TrEMBL record:
Family designation: Belongs to the acyl coenzyme A hydrolase family.
GO molecular function terms attached to this record: fatty acyl-CoA hydrolase activity
Top EC class of this enzyme: hydrolase
Protein name per Swiss-Prot or TrEMBL: Acyl-CoA thioesterase
Entry EC number(s): 3.1.2.20
HotDog ACOT-type domain mapped to chain residues: 3-117
Organism of origin: Sphingobium tyrosinilyticum
Pfam families the record matches: 4HBT
Claim: Methyltransferase is one of the keywords in the record: no
Keyword check for Hydrolase: yes
Lineage: Bacteria, Pseudomonadati, Pseudomonadota, Alphaproteobacteria, Sphingomonadales
InterPro entries in the cross-refs: Cytosol_ACT, HOTDOG_ACOT, HotDog_dom_sf, Thioestr_dom
Keyword set, alphabetical order: Hydrolase
Amino acid sequence: MTTDNRGELVLRVVPRLTEINSNGHIFGGWILSQMDIAGGIVAGRLARGAVATVAIDGMKFISPMLVGDVVAVYGREERRGRTSLGIRVDVVATRGVDQQEVDLTSGLFTFVALDEEHRPRVLPEG
């Protein structure tokens, strides 16, 4: 896995044509789902088990995602509580023949560690 100042590269995907909204851009809900998947991967590894998304804070769409963009989703731990983790998720597109990198969106996803009964559990030492 690659890391840089954005954190760990968790996913690299290309949206399908079925993900286009009425403006000709990629649907924001698709981007959000990719962010939740990536954040959950990072949180699950740090929690060493099951996690659930409980909040998304400070989500901002910076630039539209275009058909043909290659999307990279990065994640990193930003905060840690007793049972919860705040995972910063950043999305960057690689676009065009010149392979320009464009920041698309960012958000802070909060995940809670779950026990076998699907109740919050204390996180392992970090």
